From TrEMBL:
Pfam families: DUF222 (PF02720), HNH (PF01844)
GO molecular function: endonuclease activity; nucleic acid binding; zinc ion binding
Compositional bias per record (Pro residues), positions renumbered to this chain: 381-393
Organism of origin: Mycolicibacterium psychrotolerans
Protein's recorded name: HNH nuclease domain-containing protein
Region Disordered, residue ranges: 135-162, 371-394
InterPro entries named among the record's database cross-references: DUF222, HNH, HNH_nuc
High-level lineage: Bacteria, Bacillati, Actinomycetota, Actinomycetes, Mycobacteriales
Superkingdom of the source species: Bacteria
Length: 416
């Protein structure tokens, strides 16, 4: 029986409210300390060293919270220095993480004092309404000029490519009509990718929302598949890589030399055609048998279900990773394969994480050799709760928005 069950109703409510306010204040203060820890993860990018895709993914994994709450914690941590008053209210137990999270996710720079005062009385819903009423920042005015610019000739369509040690850069210039077609295709593929992303289980750690780059790659792949279908004996367009078997050096066909992790990454999931060379002379082409069959792929998907890296849970776009690298003699068999998402696949080949087989005794470690497990770090506390005042909570009165004065961002300095 509850210790307050024998009390009168009003007295019982008073006792329970007192305890609720005290526990809420302690929880808010604990959330404030969690935000400071996550801010350190974010500032030094320690989440990548731990094998996570993002700081929010690390919080969801290690703290055992939902992805949406992890995003809120990450948003506050990322803007910790921009909202010191709001974060102080959180650490002192007066404001909740949800209140500060709404501010950090939507408020303009320089509005810390305004929203810290408002949050002392406003609910989370009222804070969202106040942020919607805030004026949008105006673009900086263009400098006035008395001289009329000379008419320039219409630019010709062009595609330029430059390459450095790590990346290849494409610069595409199209007339407005062709650019509109290109934009429409990108939007269509991005909408489809986002629809697939939204269908994923929200209780699991989801990959980042698809970007324009993901849509562009889907557009390219779709064009490849359509072209291959029109050719009577056409195969899927492939990337061609040349590998010197003596020096273990790889390069793209008519392209730059690849780093070791990029060479192994390309050959691992059978996404490219490999030509072997010795002393600059071809000695044979890699067989496509390193590509897993549909039957083997189905068996692999039924066994692993998701990315095998603990804390990930990605289910779309998974790669079939050779636990013993294909170029080192690893076989394309179920015992030597594991499903990994593209992020963790590349992280493995770059040495950020290590995936060691065989598949029935899989061990995943981070860059420091610490085993990665899917369990959170939550455990029974060994220290007393923070000594803070009970949380009073929002006052809860009805907001009269016609009296409310939204935060006004400072005007940009005038140009001379």
């Amino acid at each position: 029986m509850s210790p307050t069950a024998s009390l009168a109703q009003d007295e019982r409510l008073s006792v329970l409210f007192d305890e609720l306010g005290e526990l809420t204040g302690q929880r808010n203060a604990i959330d404030g300390r969690i935000v400071e820890i996550v801010a350190e993860f974010d500032r030094d990018e320690l989440w990548a060293a731990a094998g996570a895709k993002s700081v929010a993914g690390l919080v969801a994994w290690k703290a055992g919270v939902s992805p949406s709450r992890a995003e809120t914690i990450a948003a506050v941590a990322h803007r910790l220095n921009e909202f010191p008053r709001c974060v102080t209210g959180l650490k002192e137990g007066r404001l909740s993480l949800d209140q500060v999270g709404v501010i950090a996710q939507r408020a303009a720079e320089g509005s810390d004092e305004h929203y810290a005062t408002l949050a002392a009385a406003a609910t989370v819903t009222q804070l969202r309404t106040a942020l919607k009423l805030a004026p949008k920042p105006l673009p900086e005015p263009e400098p006035e000029s008395d001289t009329q610019p000379e008419a320039e000739p219409a630019p010709e369509p062009s595609i330029n490519k430059t390459t450095d040690d790590q990346y290849t850069y494409w610069h595409i210039r199209l007339p407005h009509v062709e650019a509109a077609t290109f934009d429409a295709a990108l939007r269509s593929h991005q909408d489809a990718l986002i629809a697939e992303w939204k269908e994923l289980d929200e209780t699991a750690a989801r990959p980042p929302m698809p970007t324009t780059v993901d849509a562009f790659l889907r557009l390219v792949e779709t064009g490849w598949d359509a072209e291959a279908a029109r050719r009577p004996h056409g195969q899927h367009t492939t990337v061609v890589m040349h590998v010197d078997v003596k020096d273990k050096v790889g390069s793209l066909h008519l392209g730059p030399v690849l780093l070791q992790h990029d060479r192994q990454y390309l050959s691992c999931d059978a996404t490219c055609e490999v030509w072997f060379e010795r002393d600059g002379r071809p000695i044979g082409a890699g067989r496509t048998t390193r590509t897993i069959s549909r039957r083997l792929r189905r068996a692999l998907e039924r066994r692993d279900l998701t990315c095998v890296v603990p804390g990930c849970g990605a289910t779309r776009g998974l790669h079939a990773h050779h636990l013993r690298h294909w170029e080192d003699g690893g076989l394309t068999e179920l015992i030597n394969l594991a499903l990994v998402c593209p992020y963790h696949h590349r992280a493995h080949h770059r040495g950020l994480i290590t995936i060691v087989g065989p598949a029935d005794r899989l061990v995943v470690t981070d860059h420091a050799g610490r085993p990665m497990t899917s369990t959170s770090l939550a455990r029974p506390p060994t220290q007393p709760p923070p000594d803070v005042a009970p949380c009073p909570g929002p006052t809860g009165e009805r907001a009269r928005w016609w009296w409310y004065e939204p935060f006004q961002p400072p005007s940009p300095p005038a140009r001379n």
